[in-house]
Amino acid sequence: MLAGDGQKGDLETAVSHTQAAGLPSQLLSPDELAVLDPRMVLDGVAAASFTPGAGYADPALTTQAFAGAARRLGVEIRQGTKVVRLLRDGEKVVGVETAVSTLHAPIVIIAAGSWSGNLLRTARLDLPLQPVRHPVVCLRRPPEFGTPHHSLLDLTGGIYARPETGDLTLLGSVDANVGYDPIQANDTGGYVHESYILWALTQLTQRYPSLETSQLLPGWTGVMTITPNWQPIIGGWPDAPGLFCAVGFSGQGFQISPAVGKLLAELVTGSRDAASQLAPFAPTRFATATQHPQHTGENHSLLR
Ligand SMILES: Cc1cc2nc3c(=O)[nH]c(=O)nc-3n(C[C@H](O)[C@H](O)[C@H](O)COP(=O)(O)OP(=O)(O)OC[C@H]3O[C@@H](n4cnc5c(N)ncnc54)[C@H](O)[C@@H]3O)c2cc1C
């Protein structure tokens, strides 16, 4: 993670938090970073963090692994069965209506990604969830580039870049003003616009000039959901007993999914420790501030 002068303090705080959580994150000076990867041009970099052993994981395989583990514990997964509405009996949420049947349940958890806002509205609950479209640029690195670069989050240029097998690099924006266009949840079409590609490539090749001769491959867009402070909403509602949610992951839901699943399960089964750990993410934090996410012009809060 690369930080400029204005971001250095936040990066130092983030590294001390990750170290306190037991991860071997290190704070590097630009000179130390130059030793780690001499191919980088470090203009504007005041500090960097490096976590040896960090990387990326395959989301499809991970999802299947979670599903397999749940099935082994007795969970029945009904794939392709759409929930159309939540059922309420007075205040209490008592189940769901699917496209084919009605299911009664003492606990309902909404974890429906970008479609969560629509589902919650069927129970007269409103959260400030904004689906956005995010484009990903895909490059094939030139053979002379050599070994893959590290997974990179360059806060000075507002981009992320991570290696993929086959000499590929996946690249996109972490700048809230670029590549996070508000959409409706069902609007899954979309293009990776040339202006976005050019912007992202310019940022990347300023750091790695030797990537200038990369081959541009077709990219793709995906849908994610942001909240006003780019932090997820996890928990329940005192005035809707039986209902819990894990939504609004603001582009960071994959990496924290094991912890979210564990804490939410503990919360549902009554753990006070989970309740206190999840308190900052409670749905009720928006009870008095129901404004919808706005682009603030700042990088979103990846460091917090
Ligand atoms: C291009 C892109 C890059 C990303 N990169 C990263 C990254 O590097 N790191 C990271 O941590 N995160 C990343 N994310 C974000 C991450 O993908 C999300 O935070 C994560 O997928 C959220 O998981 P989820 O289970 O809450 O929602 P989803 O993954 O959206 O899953 C929701 C599920 O609910 C189902 N569903 C929806 N409506 C209904 C209904 N009515 N009835 C029944 N089922 C329903 C859907 O079919 C889907 O299976 C990225 C996202 C995108 C788009």
What does this structure look like?
The chain has helices spanning about 10-20, 30-35, 60-70, 115-120, 195-205, 255-270, 270-280, and strands spanning about 1-5, 25-30, 45-50, 85-90, 90-100, 100-105, 110, 130-140, 150-155, 160-165, 170-175, 180, 215-225, 235, 245. It is an alpha+beta fold and about 300 residues long. The chain folds into 2 domains: about 1-55 and about 135-225, D-Amino Acid Oxidase, Chain A, domain 2 (2-Layer Sandwich); about 60-130 and about 230-285, 3-Layer(bba) Sandwich (FAD/NAD(P)-binding domain), CATH 3.50.50. The strands form 4 sheets. Strands 8, 9, 10, 11, 12 and 13 form a 6-stranded antiparallel beta sheet that branches. The longest helix has 14 residues, at about 60-70. The model is unreliable at about 295-300 (pLDDT under 50). It binds flavin-adenine dinucleotide (FAD). Flavin-adenine dinucleotide (FAD) binds near residues 222, 224, 253 and 255.
Short description:
This protein has 304 residues and is an alpha+beta fold. Helix content is 24%, strand content 26%. The chain folds into two domains: 2-54 and 134-223, D-Amino Acid Oxidase, Chain A, domain 2 (2-Layer Sandwich); 59-129 and 228-286, FAD/NAD(P)-binding domain (3-Layer(bba) Sandwich).
Any ligands, ions or cofactors bound here, and which?
A: flavin-adenine dinucleotide
Q: What is the correct CATH architecture of the largest domain?
A: 2-Layer Sandwich
CATH topology of the largest domain: D-Amino Acid Oxidase, Chain A, domain 2
Q: What kind of sheet is the major sheet?
A: 6 strands, antiparallel
The CATH superfamily name of the largest domain is D-Amino Acid Oxidase, subunit A, domain 2
Distance between the termini: 13 Å
Global geometry: globular
What would you report as the Rg, rounded to the nearest angstrom?
21 Å
| CATH top level label of the largest domain | Alpha Beta
Which regions contain 5 or more consecutive residues with pLDDT less than 50?
294-301
The helix/strand series, from N terminus to C terminus, equals: EHEHEHEEEEHEEEEEHEEEHH
Mean pLDDT comes to 93
Structural class, please?
Answer: alpha+beta
Query: How many helical stretches?
Result: 7
Extended strand count: 15
What share of residues is helical? 10-25%
DSSP strand (E) fraction? 25-35%
Question: How many separate domains?
Answer: 2
